[in-house]
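[audit] Reproducing an earlier prediction to check determinism. Same input, same settings, fresh worker. If the tokens differ from the archived copy the diff job will pick it up downstream; this log only records the rerun itself.
[audit] input (481 residues):
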Amino acid sequence: TTAPRDQFIFNADIDSSLAYGVETATVFASTDNQSSWISAPAAALNTVGYENTWEGQVFTGGGNSVYSYLAGEVDSEVLGEEFGTILVTSSPHNVNGSWPVSNNLYARLATDASGDAPASQDIVEISGTYKGDIAIDADGEEYTDVERVYFSMDLAGNCCPASDGDGGFFDFGPWYLYGIGIVNPEIDDPATAGTAYAIGYGDGGFWGGDALYPGVLKISGDLATGTIDSFEFLSNNISYNTNGNTLQVTTLLEFITNDAGWGAWPNSYNGMIVNSVTVQAALDGLDVDATILDQSDPGLFICSTQFQEGNSPLILSSPNFDESSNILTVNYSDADGNLPWFKAAQICNTEENGGACFSQVDMIPSSHDYEEGVEFSTSITDAVIDEYALSGEYVAKFWFADDDIDNYPSAQIEIPISISGSNCALVGDSNGDGALNVLDVVLLVNLVLDVAQGDACSDVNGDGALNVLDVVLLVNLVLGS
């Protein structure tokens, strides 16, 4: 992200193998300590240097600190799942472990159409949040060490009747169980592939009231069909709240992740598949028959929240100019890992010639690991050289900002450069044979498809990038010649 500022910018890099499955994305930001959130849609940038980057901009009104997180609708097939379109979301961070949890600290995880079950068992929506601390994994990478998870299940009717009976010792039911189901999305052991977990709420049932009670359950069965073969209680150490139409539950995550059937934790998502279910249990002769009354869509809950307070100054270093290619480079790093929203190279006269800057171009990053340091580059194209008749000595100035531009009112670093004029005798002559023909078109198409670095003549429109626009212009030049 950028530093905390009015026009707060959030970037997310999505691997190309997953990008086609992203249907929508939304950025959430809070500058009032998570009391309220402002959201804005994010979209794919599809520009040079940001081919796999989605960006959202939230106008926060300013502030010295900001919490932020990202949510998106994703075709679960790209995640190796078969749930259709699901919500993949991180959430606010319940830093202080507030309980019961207020709505501003929850993120929506999944929804369900209403009207398909009795009102008090009719699920409308589930939400989640977490409490944890930053830790370092075995590879030296930061992750959130989750201590506790919190979930909310919104129902269409009053929450949460335990049974349809009188609740006494001889209550013959039927009885009701309300559960938040949790599955490790990276279970790789066939022996535990049918294992799920639930934070369940029930109260009484089965002659004496000791068969259904609030707790953490381990469930075995067919997760695809919802068939339950067996369940066992791992712990009754949970808290719950049943006010109004909402069930809230919370427990220590270790009760689940320490179980042998869970698998590795943290997983690569630092998250879990979550859904909700309401179950009716009734006597069937001497047996008990369990029927699922309602079940929400699943969602992928990622336990992660961005936070920044204040801002460390960005650092520019190692400016360079390659006279043979007219390419400018500079290294950018930021202790907060902030992205630079403003990243310009200026071409200016020397002080002896007045020092005025007359051309400014956007710079392109080689990667996005801004905390470690990234090289930005740009080319002084032949179009710029010809437009300003550049030849001789000049100054290149590098001007970046991760915060409001008022905090970076001028370029931070500069170098002298020498420009000898245009490097291209014939625009479009990609193979340098002195003629425009189909061979130049074929070579340019290959350069565009390979996202390769061509020479100055290949960049037909002089915008510093090779793309389909250059191909179209070159075809017209060849046909016209």
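[audit] rerun output stored. Observation attached for the diff report: Residues 110-122+129-297 form one domain.
[audit] end
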